[in-house]
Design a protein that fits this description.
The complex is a heterodimer of chains A (about 575) and B (about 290).
Chain A (H helix, E strand, L loop, with lengths): L25 H5 L3 H7 L3 H31 L8 H36 L8 H20 L27 H30 L12 H32 L13 H35 L6 H15 L15 H10 L1 H15 L8 H23 L2 H7 L3 H31 L5 H27 L16 H30 L38 H6 L24
Helix pairs in contact in A: 3-4, 3-5, 3-16, 4-5, 4-6, 4-7, 4-8, 4-14, 5-6, 6-7, 7-8, 7-9, 8-9, 8-12, 8-14, 9-11, 12-14, 12-15, 14-15, 15-16
Chain B lengths: L37 H6 L1 H6 L14 H34 L17 H30 L6 E8 L2 E6 L4 E6 L5 E5 L4 E7 L4 E5 L4 E5 L5 E5 L5 E7 L11 E7 L1 H9 L8 H11 L4
Parallel strand pairs in B: 1-5, 4-10
Antiparallel strand pairs in B: 1-2, 2-3, 5-8, 6-7, 6-9, 9-10
Helix pairs in contact in B: 3-4
The chains are: A mainly alpha (about 575), B alpha+beta (about 290).
């Protein structure tokens, strides 16, 4: 254990106060225990785990709703659910998946747990604010689910709540109000987490952890947090306006009072499109952690990737109206150009990932399989996304199943493929035990097959003219066969998540212990114990590149000289065999 | 180039197979290509050389001149997507199968992190691709969105959950909702102006065979042109979620010869319900009544 930085050592290039300290275990010993300990905890690991468990429960709820929707659509005029119930179900499916699963699982759960570890901090910058975030999120989630219990049912206007459909006349009842309240609560939760992540990453990095030595996951979380601070206040403000329109007689979104319904769409999508990247960037980060570890190489083009992430974030604030091409009141060329341009940094990321795999030694763990599945899924979603960025093509695909297929391939590709890659990858860090790898591979292959079977037919039936959000459709148009295939696919996906449940159960009941670093991973979180002690680190390795743990365990390996450059050509020592 | 394929109500639609159907005898063989569209199309040589013989890639071939422009853009984008997406797909497949860790591999692979030349290439080439896609997009969208003044004008009003088609020249009104879906009639081979708005919430005016949709919005009017190329009946549907009976908000468009249209539009039926009456009726009795 030579060359270990002690708490008194100051590293090179660290900003802010040095906070590396000896883990203080006495906290745990004198604190409350059991349920009270969980409720009062401000430990980022406890909060992160609570986020992940809550969001996974909601993910299963939303998945069951999707199955009901798919059964309904398997026959042209099914009466499994009524029109109103159908509208409630897809509204809640979308709201749960987008607002309460995909975002919170990554930036509430994984980021909370992993980012302080990756930058070598003992906790988040504002631990109590962090706890507030979680409790706001949990109460918001419960509020959202309560919509099903009130008279009149849950909200029925889709996850986008377009005015004037969402006003008091067209959507009367408590359900829509509950939906608005839930989003205000979880919106503040997201904003506080964003503040916390930015402060943690800027001020609590360990000595030596310069910005350009941060893991890509942490970089992406920083950019996500900034996007949250840009986008979520707009949504929260718009929701307050909507609530005022519904209850206090304002006319912000109503034509009769001199307001503009189109304003809602502008405000919503000014939140909504950065939101897409708030959902996607964390998962890009997860995949970028996994590819290098299981290729046994560093991230290819690290700095280019950071700048690609930053430009995606910058462009994402200028493309919101590509959701509004068919409104007839947006400047088509501007939004089309910016939307098309986003393909460029996204493409750069693809080449970074492929470059990382290139000439590596690939090991196909479950985490790696899920990450590769993410590449294929996101490639398809990305290519169709470029098509949709062109207004004349968007005109005849907008609001059809083509769009449904597109954004499910993007969001399922990122949040589910890369998200569960992250679960398989970091589970040993969370508990010091392995998830069963063979069950993980069953989970992957079932999900991978189910994914394509579900969503590819939706592209075709969308081009044939099937609109989204319809509960029944004419039987003579030949749409049913595609819908049946899609429903079968949805059940294959459901089966894969039954495998995951079994895996979580059996891995918990019959634990297979693993060391602190079962993957021979690169980043700092794998240096501490699994699970990490209360304040994370008793000591840190020297941080001289973006993979300090790897450098520590491979002292004579080709240290990629401090994260810069590449070894000179012909350096045979570095070539395997 | 049978544009009525799949769009007709008279016979069941076949799923788009991608193979071009034989042209019916009465259909014009080829639409004259406008001069403006020649230059960009010439750049996209493979697309143009094959012309209409290219597969439809699942989309309708466009029953209007505007729709045909959009359809050609779709073909171009699809081919570009196939080429670029296919290239990336093959790179991923290659690295996954070629570089799997074998028992023979010893030591570590070369720890390459930067290759500046490659990095510049994969940044610049996508910009060029995207810029060319943008050029085609703007040209097409100007054609699709052009609204020259026309002889025939139709005012379309969408409401929960039906459509009203009003012909201001003669005062003719067609109105219907849900199970009694209304039919818009317009002359073939003649540009027609549509003024579209909504009486309540947002609706989506979508005719799949025309490769076109536009929101019917409350508070402002959207204007666009259709130039239907073949007689026939085309199905239409609301695409934007508009409440309880969104799924039932159907309509159809029938393109007839100008003579038939003149007779039809001058034959005004006396009595028709108003939008308000129909809305009261559906709120009281549901769509079945």
């Amino acid at each position: 254990m030579t060359d270990v930085i002690t708490p008194t050592t100051t590293g090179d290039g660290a900003h802010g106060p040095s906070v590396v300290g000896v883990a203080r275990h006495e906290h745990e010993e004198h604190g409350p225990t059991g349920l009270l300990k969980w409720v009062t905890s401000t430990d980022h690991k406890v909060i992160g785990m609570s986020y992940m468990i809550t969001s996974l429960v909601l993910f299963y709820f939303a998945g069951i709703m999707a199955l009901v929707l798919r059964i309904q659509l398997a026959t042209p005029s099914s009466s499994l659910v009524s029109f109103a119930q159908y509208n409630e179900l897809f509204t809640m499916h979308g709201s749960l998946m987008l607002y309460l699963f995909a975002g919170p699982f990554a930036f509430g759960g994984l980021a909370n747990y992993i980012v302080p570890l990756q930058v070598g901090a003992p906790d988040m910058a504002f631990p109590r604010l962090n706890a507030l975030s979680y409790w706001l999120y949990l109460s918001g989630s419960i509020t959202m689910m309560m919509g099903f219990l009130v008279a009149g049912g849950a909200a029925e206007f889709g996850w986008v709540a377009y005015a004037p459909l969402s006003n008091a006349t067209n959507s009367p009842g408590v359900g829509p109000d509950i939906w608005i309240m839930a989003l205000v609560l979880t919106g503040f939760s997201a904003i506080f987490t964003g503040v916390n992540l930015v402060a943690t990453i800027f001020y609590l990095r360990a000595p030596g952890m310069t910005m350009f030595r941060m893991p890509i996951f942490t970089w992406n979380m920083l950019v996500t947090a900034i996007l949250i601070l840009i986008a979520f206040p707009v949504l929260t403000g718009a929701l307050v306006m909507l609530f005022c329109d519904r209850h206090f007689g304002t006319h912000i979104f109503s034509v009769q009072g001199g307001g503009s319904p189109n304003l809602w769409q502008n405000l919503f999508w000014f939140f909504g499109h950065p939101e897409v990247y708030i959902l996607a960037l964390p998962y890009f980060g997860i995949a970028t952690e996994i590819f290098p570890v299981f290729s046994r190489k560093p991230v290819f083009g690290y700095k280019g990737m950071v700048f690609a992430t930053l430009s995606i974030a910058a462009l994402s604030t200028g493309v919101w109206a590509h959701h509004m091409f068919t409104t007839g009141v947006v400047l088509l060329p501007f939004f089309s150009l910016l939307s098309l341009l986003i393909a460029v940094p996204t493409g750069i990321k693809f080449f970074n990932w492929i470059g990382t795999l290139w000439r590596g030694q690939l090991q196909f763990s479950a985490a790696m399989l899920f990450s590769i599945g993410f590449l294929f899924a996101f490639l398809m979603g990305g290519v169709t996304g470029v098509m949709l960025a062109s207004p004349p093509i968007d005109f005849f695909t907008h609001d059809t199943y083509f769009v449904v297929a597109h954004f499910h391939q993007v969001l399922f590709g990122t949040a589910v493929f890369a998200g569960f890659a992250g679960l398989y990858y970091w589970y040993p860090k969370f508990f010091g035990r392995m998830l069963r790898e063979n069950l993980g591979k069953w989970h992957f292959w079932l999900m991978f097959i189910g994914f394509w079977v579900t969503f590819m037919p939706q592209y075709i039936v969308g081009l044939l003219g099937m609109p989204r959000r319809v509960a029944i459709y004419p039987s003579y148009l030949g749409w049913q066969s595609y819908n049946i295939i899609s429903t079968v696919g949805a059940f294959i996906i459901a089966a894969s998540f039954a495998v995951l449940l079994w895996n979580l159960w059996i891995s918990w009941r019959q634990p297979v212990p693993c060391g602190d670093n079962p993957w021979d991973a690169h980043t700092l979180e794998w240096f501490t114990t699994s699970p990490p002690p209360h304040h994370n680190y008793s000591h840190l390795p020297p941080i001289r590149s973006e993979r300090p743990t790897w450098d520590y365990h491979h002292p004579d390996s080709p240290a990629i000289a401090h994260g810069e450059g590449r070894p000179p050509r012909g350096d045979k020592v570095l070539v395997s065999s | 180039m049978d544009a009525r394929r799949d769009g007709t109500l008279s016979r069941p639609a076949s799923p788009a197979t991608g193979a071009p159907d034989p042209a019916p005898p009465h259909a014009p063989r080829k639409r004259p290509i406008r001069g403006r569209s020649l230059i960009p199309l010439a750049v996209l040589a493979p697309v143009v050389l094959a012309g209409c013989q290219l597969p439809s890639f699942g989309a309708y071939r466009g029953a209007t001149s505007q729709g045909q422009d959009a359809f050609k853009l779709w073909q171009g984008f699809f081919i570009a997507g196939l080429v670029v997406g296919g290239f990336v797909f093959l790179l991923i497949v290659w690295s996954v199968f070629r570089y799997r860790k074998s028992k023979k591999s010893e030591g570590l692979p070369r720890q390459t992190q930067y290759r500046p030349v490659i990095e510049v290439l994969y940044s610049v080439i996508p910009i060029l691709i995207v810029m060319s896609l943008f050029v085609f997009t703007v040209i097409t969208e100007n054609e699709v969105d052009a609204v020259p003044s026309t002889k025939v004008t139709i005012d379309v009003t969408a409401f929960q959950w039906g459509w009203q088609f009003y012909y201001p020249a003669t005062g003719k009104v067609v109105i219907g909702q849900t199970l009694e879906q209304p039919q818009m009639v317009l002359p073939v081979n003649e540009p027609v102006t549509i003024h579209l708005e909504s009486a309540d919430v947002y609706h989506g005016f979508y005719v799949p065979a025309f490769d076109f949709s536009r929101y019917a919005a409350p508070g402002y009017v959207n204007t666009f042109n259709f130039n239907v190329l073949h007689t026939g009946t085309y199905r239409g549907q609301c695409t934007q979620l508009c409440g309880l009976y969104h799924s039932l908000m159907l309509f159809s468009v029938r393109a007839v010869s100008p003579g038939v249209f003149e007779t039809w539009v001058h034959h005004t039926s006396g009595h028709h319900p108003t939008i308000g009456q129909l809305k009261n009726q559906i709120h009281a009795n549901g769509p079945g009544a």
